[in-house]
Write a structure and sequence with these properties.
single chain, 146 residues, alpha+beta, four-stranded antiparallel sheet, 6 helices, 46% helix
Amino acid sequence: MEPVELIRDTALLEGTAYFEFQPGPYQGNHWTRDSVFLAEEVFCYFEPLITRHHSEFDHYNFSAIPASTWKGILSDLEEIAASARAATCVSDLRRADVGFHRAGLDSEFEGNFRSNSDALSKLAHELAVWVRDQLRDHECVSVLGM
């Protein structure tokens, strides 16, 4: 299981299985200094809520998500943060619309549940704060998929 964390330094990236959150519209550059990253497995915890608000989202493409759409996503991220803090099992997280995209990931998550759930709560809040900060200067935040 990948560490449940927001990656801010490209030096920490190993391989290419990451989603990049990039301020503003995609300009043809990857792994920019101003971006933050989530391992693919970790991103998938949030993919259901992103897709619900931005129906054009494609796991394998680039999406410039406007500020108006981020408003709903940010609200859901904060709800996931609160739900993860209060959760006592993976079923609680599934009810909060957290995605477990590969077979067995829920069992791995459950194996160290409190630590993983606390990390998920922290991550959801941290990502929401980062996106809000970017939207002060940009009309969108892009999510660069696989």
